[in-house]
């Protein structure tokens, strides 16, 4: 069974940093591009970025570039999203997904508020 | 960025009815390899998105054949034949041909 489990969300102060994790199982993680997508409360889906199977290349949405960093540890079957200088507009549920969109995690909620 | 425009924004349907959702892109979604990376997702209430259709017309694993996708270039349609209660939620089209990847604004399917 394929599973993607995000963690690391919570309440954070504006300007803080946060690192989300996505642990996967049930497929060969190191074979696939992986993506992060977010969804603000009551809003639609927004692409954050993606990472190549070997971690050597990343692509980001222009609005995310510079503050968000995607990485992976294939030995640990884990995808990461490092968020820095967070703002209230970053309040959202963050999903990891395989690049084909065939599998998604359950999401982790990040709330940025003072 | 490629803008994905979905219509209608919402649909009210009766169980057993057939419906169609349109998705239009601001640029052709044909990639250099000749394939078209246009996908359809369903987000049921309180759930993560689920892929229904990939590359315009290919049914995802376990997806009922009541769902079908058609289209080309910049104009795409998702059709649901004989809507069932489990089909309710928000439908999104998504393109992964161009950077950045983009999603449509969603179409909310509700019960009449």
Protein architecture, described:
The complex is a heterodimer of chains A (114) and B (112). Chain A is mostly beta strands and 114 residues long. Chain A has no helices and 10 strands. Chain A has a 6-stranded mixed beta sheet, with no helix packed on it. In chain A, strands 1-3-8-7 form a 4-stranded antiparallel beta sheet, with no helix packed on it. By secondary structure, chain B is mainly beta. In chain B, 0% of the residues lie in helices and 49% in strands. Chain B contains no helices and 11 strands. In chain B, strands 2, 4, 5, 6, 9, 10 and 11 form a 7-stranded mixed beta sheet that branches. Chain B is globular and about 40 Å long. The mean pLDDT of chain B is 97. Chains A and B meet through strand 5 of A and strand 4, strand 5, strand 9 and strand 10 of B.
Question: What is the element layout, followed by pairings?
Answer:
The complex is a heterodimer of chains A (about 110) and B (about 110).
Chain A: E1 3-7, E2 10-12, E3 18-25, E4 34-39, E5 45-51, E6 58-60, E7 68-73, E8 78-83, E9 92-98, E10 108-112
Parallel strand pairs in A: 2-10
Antiparallel strand pairs in A: 1-3, 3-8, 4-5, 4-9, 5-6, 7-8, 9-10
Chain B: E1 4-7, E2 10-13, E3 19-25, E4 38-43, E5 49-54, E6 58-59, E7 67-72, E8 75-80, E9 89-95, E10 102-103, E11 107-111
Parallel strand pairs in B: 2-11
Antiparallel strand pairs in B: 1-3, 3-8, 4-5, 4-9, 5-6, 7-8, 9-10, 9-11
């Amino acid at each position: 069974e394929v599973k993607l489990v995000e963690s690391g969300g919570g309440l954070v102060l504006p300007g803080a940093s946060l690192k989300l994790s996505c642990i996967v199982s049930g497929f060969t993680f190191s074979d696939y591009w992986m993506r992060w997508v977010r969804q603000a409360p009551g809003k639609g889906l927004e692409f954050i970025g993606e990472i190549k199977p070997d971690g050597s290349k990343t692509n980001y949405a222009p609005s995310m570039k510079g503050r968000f960093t995607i990485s992976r540890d294939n030995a640990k079957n884990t995808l990461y999203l490092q968020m820095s200088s967070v703002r209230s507009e970053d309040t959202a549920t963050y999903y990891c997904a395989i690049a084909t969109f065939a599998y998604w995690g359950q999401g982790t909620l990040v709330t940025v508020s003072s | 960025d490629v803008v994905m425009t979905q219509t209608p924004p919402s649909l009210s349907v009766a169980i057993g009815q057939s419906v169609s959702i349109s998705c239009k892109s601001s640029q052709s979604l044909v990639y250099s390899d000749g394939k078209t990376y246009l996908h359809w997702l369903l987000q049921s209430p309180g759930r993560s998105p689920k892929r229904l259709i990939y590359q315009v017309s290919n049914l995802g694993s376990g997806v009922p054949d009541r769902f079908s996708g058609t289209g080309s270039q910049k104009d795409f349609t998702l059709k649901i034949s004989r809507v069932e209660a489990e089909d309710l939620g928000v439908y999104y089209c998504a393109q992964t041909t161009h950077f950045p990847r983009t999603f449509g604004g969603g179409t909310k399917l509700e019960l009449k």
